Amino acid sequence: MTDIEYIKAFRDDNQRAITRFYNEYRDGFLYNIGSRYHVRDEDLLSEIFQESVTRLWNNIIRGKLTESNLTSPLAGYLYCIGRYVALEVFRREGIQVKESLEDVEDQDTPSDIKLAIPLWAESEQEKAVRHAVNAMGEPCAPLLLLFYWDKLSWENIAQHLSYKDANSAKTQKYKCIQKLKAQFL
Fold it and tell me: Are 153 and 117 members of one domain?
């Protein structure tokens, strides 16, 4: 299904399509959030995913997210919600995590991503790149985040994102970098 079809399904309370969305995005979401915050408790990660999907659904029901104002892939939107939900859940549960959103904000942007955008003031550049990568959604956002920010090997990325092999993941990364460059040229 397309992102537009999923938005309509959430708005229409189409349980079959919502279940499909849930199944399609659950494993990647759990892996990404678990890797980002170094958490392996699948029950906790599932709780974060469920809350994130619920917030996404509420944003659609309330008209905050519609077919006409969707500016990034729905998966990227869900992932951004998930990062904030994760930090809320970790705080509520008293769980210390090794990385927070503030830590991510302070990380350097990888050099080949920097080449994709004009030379602005460093803080503006960092914000623009981070926003652009998160907005890319599937398959680019998870791949770039796992490679650059989580520093996973190509073999792990291929396995977690269901690529045939490491070379397939590398090829997709190249395409994603080209797509990112096009956004800034």
Answer: yes
pLDDT at 38 exceeding the cut of 60? yes
Residue 30's SS3 state is helix
Q: What's the structural domain count of the chain? A: 2
Contact status, residue 142 vs residue 29, Cβ threshold 8 Å: no
Residues 92 and 13 placed together within one structural domain of the fold: yes
Helices 15-37 and 3-11, packing angle to 10 deg: 110
Instruction: Quote the percentage of the chain above a pLDDT of 90.
Output: 23
- Which residues constitute the domain of residue 144? 107-185
Q: What single DSSP character describes residue 109?
A: P
pTM over the 0.70 mark: no
Same domain, 149 and 68: no
